[in-house]
Each structure stands twice: as structure tokens, then as C-alpha cells.
Design a protein that fits this description.
single chain, alpha/beta, Rossmann fold, seven-stranded parallel β-sheet, six-stranded parallel β-sheet, 15 helices, globular, binds uridine-diphosphate-N-acetylglucosamine
Length: 359
């Protein structure tokens, strides 16, 4: 059988890597990898492929940036002839980025079955572009692989038939488990002994001038107590420059490669973020995570893990940071099936469900 994977943005790469690897060991499976080019900077893409051991994509659609409509449309236009030519039995899409939805729409209209890895996550906040991508992708998918029980419950409530839903665990944690020893072996490289690791890129946080200003001044306040190390997404860097904001003593860096970022996370005193995946990685690592959002599509990181939602204002960030600094940070446990074997379970299901060999 032919399985065609579509990825495009940084958080897709750590999810596709273990699935590619697991399917490569299954007899009769031919794999094709398409990179949409949604992320194109070396620091956001190639370095991740290298470190994760992902083979050179068979096709790079090189769509680049654009408004949501333009980027989504461009991916669809460029992907359609590739799918028509490749004729896969299954298209596998990952997460909730524009590439995920665009590829699902094209495959669905060509009558090609779709597998969605990381299905069922919901923030219930439709102002997030990712929430729109999640909702629509899950409606189109034929096999839905969820990382946690809440994902499966959300899908059932939306009327997705039970037989399409598989609780397989968290593939992002598969990559983490595999590469953590290599990350831990990296030298500390002059990092401070104790630090707050910060990432920010959500449109709701960085596109609104007032919100971004407020968050940066809260971080400057954090920096008085704990060194702030801030690898900034290109979107965030550009916004800071556009607004002429001072980052003062904050250590603002370019995006950091996967292994270095894992090392930074595993040694951090606390992580302050608005990312989705980082909420999960910190839960696995047992590192306190303060999420600068009002909601999360990953509630298990709050109910079981180390994650605390601090909203966008400085008050709750201040309170939670002082708990961390006084050794009273929330402790957590690792959710079920976040064990490094999720991709193996996914590969078993794919082979079991779509076992019409092509050759
Ligand atoms: C995307 C995903 C988001 C994910 C994030 C991780 C969507 C809707 N959003 O957001 O879910 O958490 O990736 O990084 O798909 N840019 C560069 N270089 C790059 C990529 C982007 O400079 O390699 C700049 C572009 O100028 C663009 C901006 O970043 O304007 C946004 O890029 P885009 O891919 O649209 O979304 P992200 O904000 O990266």
C-alpha cells in the first residue's frame, strides 16, 4: 500500500518522524513524503528534518508565507496534481496547521482516505486558526488517531463514528523519548544555571500591539528574578521590531533546533509559552509550564501534568512564578500512552485497515 504523508510546519516534523520510522518496518508499505514549504527558514524546517532523521521530502511544494486563505489555497493548488499522480491509498496529516487542513480538503475531494494524527484536540476557541483546522480536518478524516482520552470524547460528541477513532497516544512524545538522551548529552553552552525558557508566537499574543507589549513587560519583570531565555519565532521577532519594543535584558535568540530546545526545556526552572506541543513536552519532562493563554486544546497537561494556564495578564504569571521559585510548583504525572510507542500503534492500525498491497 502507498501512504503519503503531508507536513509543512515546525510542529509537524516531530510528529511525522516516528510514524515514518514505524511504517518503514512494515512489509508492503511504500511511503511518500510531501513538504508544503509552509515553514521554509532553515531554522524552522531543515535543521529539524536533519536532527529527527527524516528523509529528504519527495516533493517540496515551496508555498511559503501568506494570508491564511492564500497559503491554504496555494497548498491545495500545488498538492492536487501530486496526489493525482501518486495515487496513494492513504494521506496522513498531522496536527492543526494550515498544511493539515489544505491537504485534507484536497485528498477528500479526490476520494483518497485520510488519517489524522493528533485528532480530537479542542480549545473550543474558534478565534484560533488552529481550532478551525482541527474541526474541519477531523470531519474529513477516515481514521483519527488521538493522543489522549479527551480527544476521543470530543470526536464522539461531534458525531464521528466510534470505529474511526483510535486512542494511540502521543507521537510527539515518541520523538522526545528517542532523542532525549542525545539532547541531555549536549553541553550546557554557557546557559545560566537557572532560567525561564520562553516561546511566544500565537497570533492572539503577538499580533495585537497592546497584548504583546504587556507580555514583554511581564517577561522583563520575570527577568529580575530569573534569567529569561527566549528563542523567538520569526513572526514574533518581526512584530517586536515593527513595534520598536525593547526586550532590554531578555536573551532573545533565533529559533533553536529540536535537540537544543529539548535540552533547554529539560534543564529549565520553568517554561513560559503559548505553544501547544511545549505544554505536552514539559508535562512529560516534569518541568513547570506556565501557558500564556486562556484556554488549551491539551487539557490533560493541566489535569495530569505540570501545566498551568496563566492567561494574558501579568497577575497570574507573577503568582505562579513565585510558587515555582519557592519550590511549590505543581507536580504532575505522565498521561497514559505517552510512552514512546504511539507511532507503532498507529502503524499497526494503518496496516490492519488498509492492507490492499499495491505490488
Ligand atoms: C504555524 C501554525 C501554528 C504552529 C506554528 C509553529 C498555522 C495556522 N499555524 O504558525 O499552529 O504552532 O506554525 O511554528 O498553520 N515565517 C518565517 N519563516 C518560516 C515560517 C514562517 O519567517 O520559516 C513567518 C512568515 O513570514 C509568516 C509568519 O512567520 O508571516 C507566520 O507563518 P505561518 O506558517 O503562517 O504560521 P505560524 O505563525 O508559523
Amino acid at each position: 500500500m502507498k501512504v503519503l504523508h503531508v507536513v509543512g510546519a515546525r510542529p509537524n516534523f516531530m510528529k511525522v518522524a516516528p510514524v515514518l520510522k514505524a511504517l518503514a518496518t512494515r512489509a508492503g508499505v511504500v511511503q511518500v513524503l510531501i513538504h508544503t514549504g509552509q515553514h521554509y527558514d532553515r531554522s524552522m524546517s531543515d535543521i529539524f528534518l536533519d536532527q529527527l532523521g527524516i528523509p529528504e521530502p519527495d516533493v517540496n511544494l515551496a508555498v511559503g508565507s501568506g494570508t491564511h486563505a492564500r497559503q491554504t489555497a496555494e497548498i491545495m493548488t500545488r498538492l492536487e496534481p501530486v496526489l493525482t499522480e501518486q495515487k496513494p491509498e492513504l494521506v496522513v496529516v498531522y496536527g492543526d496547521v494550515n498544511s493539515t487542513l489544505a491537504a485534507s480538503l484536497v485528498a477528500a475531494k479526490l476520494g483518497i482516505r485520510i488519517g489524522h494524527v493528533e485528532a480530537g484536540l479542542r480549545s473550543f476557541d474558534r478565534t484560533m486558526p488552529e481550532e478551525i483546522n482541527r474541526l474541519l480536518t477531523d470531519q474529513l478524516a477516515d481514521v483519527l488517531f488521538t493522543p489522549s482520552a479527551d480527544g476521543a470524547a470530543n470526536l464522539r460528541k461531534e458525531g464521528i463514528p466510534l470505529e474511526k477513532i483510535f486512542l494511540t497516544g502521543n507521537v510527539m512524545i515518541d520523538s522526545l523519548v528517542r532523542l532525549l538522551p542525545a539532547a541531555r548529552a549536549l553541553p550546557a553552552n554557557g546557559w545560566p544555571e537557572r532560567y525561564a525558557l520562553v516561546t511566544l508566537h500565537r497570533p492572539a499574543n503577538v499580533d495585537d500591539d497592546g497584548t504583546l507589549k504587556e507580555i514583554l513587560s511581564a517577561l522583563i519583570e520575570v527577568n529580575d528574578q530569573l534569567n529569561v531565555v527566549f528563542p523567538a519565532h520569526p513572526r514574533t521577532r518581526r512584530r517586536i521590531a515593527e513595534l520598536g519594543l525593547h526586550t532590554k535584558s531578555l536573551r532573545v535568540l533565533d529559533p533553536v533546533p529540536y535537540l537544543e530546545f529539548l535540552a533547554l526545556q529539560s534543564r529549565a526552572t520553568v517554561v513560559i509559552t503559548d505553544s501547544g506541543g511545549i505544554q505536552e513536552e514539559t508535562t512529560y519532562l516534569g518541568v513547570p509550564c506556565l501557558t500564556v493563554r486562556n484556554n488549551t486544546e491539551r487539557p490533560v497537561t493541566v489535569t495530569m501534568g505540570t501545566n498551568v494556564l496563566v492567561g494574558r495578564g501579568p497577575e497570574s504569571l507573577r503568582t505562579e512564578l513565585s510558587l515555582v521559585l519557592s519550590g511549590k510548583a505543581k507536580r504532575g504525572t505522565v498521561p497514559p500512552l505517552w510512552d514512546g510507542r504511539a507511532a507503532e500503534r498507529i502503524a499497526d492500525i494503518i496496516v490492519g485497515q488498509f492492507s490492499n498491497p499495491v505490488c
